[in-house]
Amino acid sequence: MIFEYFWVADRDAAVEWAIGPGGDWLGERPRDEAGVDRLDVKRIDAHVVLGRLVAFAEAGSSDSGTGPQQVWPDPDKVPCPHETYPLAGTAWDSGLILEHIPESWRDTLAGVVADAVPMLALQWCDIAEMSWDYEEAADCVRMFVGLAQRAKAAGAQLYCRFCA
Question: Would the pTM count as exceeding 0.70?
Answer without folding.
Answer: yes
